Amino acid sequence: GLIVVSILAFSMTGFSREAEEIHFGTMPTYSAAIYATGIEKGFFKKAGVTVELTVFRSARDRDAAATAGQLDGFMTDIMGAVNLNVKGFPFIITSREHDDFGVMAGPGVDRSSSRIPTVGISENTVIEYIVDTFVDQELKKVNILAVPDRMGALLGGKLDYGVFPQPFMGIIIGNGGKPVVTTAAKEFHPVVVVFEKQFIKNHKGSIEAFYDGYIKAVKYMQVTDFSQYQSVLVKHGLATEKTVSRYRIPVSRYGLNPLSEKNFNHITQWMQKNGLLKQDVDISSVSSTEFMK
């Protein structure tokens, strides 16, 4: 049986193709577990590509690496991708991820207070967009760039509310905080995968192999107990030995999905309204559906 399988695998990827390298960047979100699993369980290699994963602690560091030509592809959000394209760095959105963001209430927040409550955000980012779009009460925005610092301010009672991705939402709930609104519940999916335009042109087969490995990693995660692969998150710095067992990765929601045109249009309109975007950006100029199987 094994021999047949390996012949099939070869015939699908072509005998002689060397596994090309993709330098891929990500933030330490839940969905980044897909890339770590794909690497450590050999799904990318089997598909015919080597993925070198770099986990960044801030979007600024990731974008600096991208604009310096160190990344072929990476995980970002719609706003970040649009900004890079406008600045002359053509990174094309090829798919979207399922990553949840929540507006979280701190453990001791007094909702009956008459003063205007504070909310911790990151200015001019998708985090601020979430507050403007999904929260209907008046809030005083406090700009705290680093997510761990924002969480510390919320849990320490210095903020009433804050906007966070996972795994921070889960940590906050574990410390007595509560979600007020979550983006997944609103069908809002801002997190996307991008590849450099020239790289797509020259290495289409590598990106097809990347997505082939990606789909296989997702399927593996959906049928495998988390304890069997949680160590890959620790290895890639997506979790610590101490925190990983508390992660609740929503694998049933994972899969290969295209960018939502509705989400894209909403975000670009918000950017224009807030003076962050001076021109119209057509979705077809910054995204592609060619890798949707």
Brief summary of the model shown:
This protein is an alpha/beta fold and 293 residues long. The chain has helices spanning 2-13, 32-40, 43-47, 59-67, 78-86, 126-134, 147-155, 168-174, 197-202, 204-223, 230-235, 261-273, 283-286; strands at residues 20-26, 49-55, 73-77, 91-96, 101-105, 118-121, 140-143, 161-165, 178-182, 191-196.
SSE layout:
Layout (H helix, E strand, L loop, with lengths): L1 H12 L6 E7 L5 H9 L2 H5 L1 E7 L3 H9 L5 E5 H9 L4 E6 L4 E5 L12 E4 L4 H9 L5 E4 L3 H9 L5 E5 L2 H7 L3 E5 L8 E6 H6 L1 H20 L6 H6 L25 H13 L9 H4 L7
Parallel strand pairs: 1-2, 1-3, 6-7, 6-8
Antiparallel strand pairs: 3-10, 4-10, 5-8, 5-9
Question: What does it look like?
Answer:
By secondary structure, the protein is an alpha/beta fold. Helix content is 40%, strand content 18%. The protein has helices spanning 2-13, 32-40, 43-47, 59-67, 78-86, 126-134, 147-155, 168-174, 197-202, 204-223, 230-235, 261-273, 283-286, and strands at 20-26, 49-55, 73-77, 91-96, 101-105, 118-121, 140-143, 161-165, 178-182, 191-196. Strands 2-1-3-10-4 form a five-stranded mixed β-sheet, sandwiched between helices. Helix 2 crosses helix 10. The chain is globular.
